[in-house]
Amino acid sequence: MALLTGEPRNATVIAQKAGKCLALEKAAFDRVVGPLKRLVEMTEQRSMLTNISVLKNLSELERMNAVRRFKLATFKKGAVSFVLLYVLM
Question: What average pLDDT does range 18-44 have in this prediction?
Answer without folding.
Answer: 81
